[in-house]
Specification:
single chain; 153 residues; alpha/beta; Aminopeptidase; four-stranded mixed sheet; two-stranded antiparallel sheet; 4 helices; 17% strand; globular
Amino acid sequence: IPDDVAFVFIARTWAHSTGEGPVAFATQPRQVLRLRPAPTRDIPPRPQGGLKLGAGPGLALRDENRLADAHLLAWLEDVAQEAGVPWQAFVPTERSFTWTSAPRVAEGVPTLTMVLPVRYLTTPYERVHAADIRALQQWLRALLAALERAPYS
């Protein structure tokens, strides 16, 4: 791997004081690729848009008021296409720190969020699709193999 890669695992992503914001501040990254669960919108009555189970992982096109970094987005799209990984576009609708804490703390750091679709998120009945998990694993492996082409490496 031609660049330093730090994997940070946070168990309490919904807890602001112990979540990803302090980690983003402490690690001072050059670029951030976050992986988060995201709610699906595929149960009746189904509104337009939104994530679906079984259609692949997603890319958040914005984080609250910030658009996704265009260079990181293009790189992830290219790698997904080369690896044959299906993916979905995702625009968060909830306005809370859960989507913005890392970009806000690491101001100016190119940031992009990958999401795993989860039905019934934050309930005891959460559901994920095995195909989405496999696609996400395949995509992450392909990204690690393509790090030398990452826009800010």
